[in-house]
Amino acid sequence: MTFHDQVIKIIPKLRVQAFALTRNRAAAEDLVQDAICNALAAQHSFIPGTNFSAWIHRILRNRFISDLRKRRDTTDIEDVPAATFASSATHEDTLALKDLSLALTHLPPDQREALIMVVIHGMSYEDLAEATNCAVGTAKSRVFRARRQLEAWMSGDLPSNDKLRIKVQALRESLKNNANSQDIESFF
């Protein structure tokens, strides 16, 4: 019996073993196909007269183990449920996020856009400059000013810049007025 004849004859048994390992028909078929490809590529290493069945079943099993290791090593962090990394936000955290969200709405549009693109989306300053059709220095400046302004609003420290001081005071008044009404919920 030729090598190829032995491969064809053992395919049903390989399918049974693959299904037992994977517990999924499609994955089992893929595993059998990969194992047969490996066996065909390594047919020169098979010694005629030895146990062909044991040899090819060992290839299938090794291929299954290799595939498991590859999947384990290359699991993308985005595939892991967020609950694995996250914990429930405290009431203070929720309020701080609401305050931050409201403060973001008060930033000038160009600064808000720059901050979100760099901080949230992870865009480089060069990409931001290209996307907003401005110089790299301008992009960096917008992000810096947005951060500085948010920090001032969120920390309660009033900056020495009079224009910024007026904006901070107006935002604080807005927050005080909205804190006692239901209107604040409309921002979120």
UniProtKB/TrEMBL annotation:
One of the Pfam families matching this protein, by short name: Sigma70_r4_2
Family affiliation: Belongs to the sigma-70 factor family. ECF subfamily.
Coiled-coil region list: none
Domain of life: Bacteria
PANTHER family cross-referenced by the UniProt entry: RNA POLYMERASE ECF-TYPE SIGMA FACTO (PTHR43133), RNA POLYMERASE SIGMA FACTOR RFAY-RELATED (PTHR43133:SF25)
Domain spans labelled RNA polymerase sigma factor 70 region 4 type: 99-150
Keywords: Sigma factor, Transcription, Transcription regulation
Residue ranges annotated for the RNA polymerase sigma-70 region domain, each copy included: 13-72
UniProt-listed InterPro entries: RNA_pol_sigma-70-like (IPR039425), RNA_pol_sigma-70_dom (IPR014284), RNA_pol_sigma70_r2 (IPR007627), RNA_pol_sigma70_r4_t2 (IPR013249), RNA_pol_sigma_r2 (IPR013325), RNA_pol_sigma_r3/r4-like (IPR013324), WH-like_DNA-bd_sf (IPR036388)
NCBIfam families: sigma70-ECF
Keyword Methyltransferase: no
SUPFAM superfamilies named in the record: Sigma2 domain of RNA polymerase sigma factors, Sigma3 and sigma4 domains of RNA polymerase sigma factors
Protein name in the entry: Sigma-70 family RNA polymerase sigma factor
